[in-house]
């Protein structure tokens, strides 16, 4: 997906990044590292994207000048180091998207650059293992009512597999139904696996029992509805401070919900990850373990068990104030 960096689009960037296996951070060679560059790089890290490359664009506007590239490269390297990326493993590529330089093949205009093109780096990215043996999890992106097919949820399979005839449960409503038909890109499929974006129709599920943000799962091991959860967060930007009682909006998989900070458990040293005492409040740049109580029933899983259902962003005042991963979930009884 393409996720523009402007503030209005950060929501889309978070939804995309929380589902991505790899990322290309695009930086304008003319403007260098911008505040949103930091936000995107940081979110990618917190949301668990480990495969990463940087493209420094608009080299044509800079006359393909090596020194300008090296300047931007140096500031990007400093930024990525401070976030915790191993910078020797992150390719930084000078490109001109407009002219196609270093996109698919090496550019003749930048003979000083000896590294790979974007496509060559993409080819080295590794496909993560697919968790087919775990219980089924499909966060619902949308629900359509299609004449002749009834209720058709659409979403990406994050774990397990799904096929026609299977009984599934929708959480948090708890409604059970049978999968009748599974389609991927308008083609009927016999079975869908993790990573597949699918639509499927269900028998026995009412339109009111399923909506965007719900999670479809295996009745034998249903998705967890959280009473509260413990998470490690990092505060990206907050004009004042975050304290107990703060109630922003959380974005997790395809869901959005309001939730309240009920305890600030401990602060961590952002460089080393070592515990640094129990804080009274958190400010920009702090990393901490916190307890959170959702204000409505919502499916949340541990990041360790289901990465895509266990990483989130916190937004308030039109910006991303924090991001984090779920360490533990206390399920509703």
How would you characterize the overall build of this protein?
This protein is mainly beta. The chain has 4 helices and 16 strands. The strands form 3 sheets. It has a 6-stranded antiparallel barrel. It has a 6-stranded antiparallel barrel with strand order 11-14-13-12-15-16. A hairpin with a 2-residue loop joins strand 15 and strand 16. The model has no long low-confidence stretch (mean pLDDT 89).
Biggest sheet record = 6 strands, antiparallel, barrel
Ends apart, CA distance between termini: 38 Å
Radius of gyration: 22 Å
Q: Average pLDDT, to the nearest integer?
A: 89
> Which consecutive residue ranges, at least 5 long each, have pLDDT under 50?
none
Task: Kindly name the structural category.
Answer: mainly beta
Which sequence of SSEs, written as H and E, runs from N to C? HEHEHEHEEEEEEEEEEEEE
Shape: globular
Count the DSSP helices. Answer: 4
Q: How large is the share of residues in beta strands?
A: 35-45%
Kindly report the oligomeric state of this protein.
single chain
Can you give the helix content as a percent range?
Answer: 10-25%
> Can you list the strand order of the major beta sheet?
4-5-9-7-6-10
> How many strands in all?
16
């Amino acid at each position: 997906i393409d996720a523009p960096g402007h503030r209005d689009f950060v929501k889309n960037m978070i939804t995309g990044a929380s589902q991505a296996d790899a990322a290309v951070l695009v930086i304008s060679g003319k403007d260098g590292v911008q505040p949103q560059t930091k936000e995107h790089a940081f979110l990618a890290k917190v949301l668990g994207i480990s495969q990463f490359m940087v493209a420094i664009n608009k080299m044509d506007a800079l006359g393909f000048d090596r020194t300008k590239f090296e300047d931007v490269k140096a500031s990007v390297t400093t930024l990525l180091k401070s976030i915790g990326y191993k910078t020797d493993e992150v390719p930084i590529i000078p490109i001109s998207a407009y002219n196609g330089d270093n996109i698919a093949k090496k550019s003749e205009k930048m003979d000083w650059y000896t590294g790979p093109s974007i496509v060559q780096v993409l080819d080295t990215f590794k496909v993560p293992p697919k968790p087919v043996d775990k219980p089924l999890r499909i966060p619902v992106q949308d629900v359509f009512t299609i004449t002749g097919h009834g209720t058709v949820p659409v979403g990406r399979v994050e774990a397990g597999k799904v096929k026609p005839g299977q009984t599934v449960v929708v959480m948090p409503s708890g409604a059970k139904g049978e999968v009748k038909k599974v389609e991927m890109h308008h083609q009927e499929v016999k079975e869908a696996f993790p990573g597949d974006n699918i639509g499927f129709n269900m028998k026995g599920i009412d339109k009111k029992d399923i909506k965007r943000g719900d999670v479809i799962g295996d009745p034998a091991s249903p998705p967890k509805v959280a009473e509260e959860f413990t998470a490690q967060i990092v505060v990206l930007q907050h004009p004042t401070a975050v304290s107990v009682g703060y109630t922003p909006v959380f974005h997790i998989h395809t869901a959005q919900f309001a939730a309240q900070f009920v305890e600030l458990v401990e602060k961590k040293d952002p460089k080393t990850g070592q515990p640094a005492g129990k804080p009274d409040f958190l400010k920009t740049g702090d990393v901490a373990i916190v307890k959170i109580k959702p204000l409505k029933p919502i499916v949340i899983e541990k990041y360790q068990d289901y990465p895509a259902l266990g990483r989130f962003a916190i937004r308030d005042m039109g910006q991303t104030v924090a991001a984090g991963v779920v360490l533990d979930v206390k399920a509703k009884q």
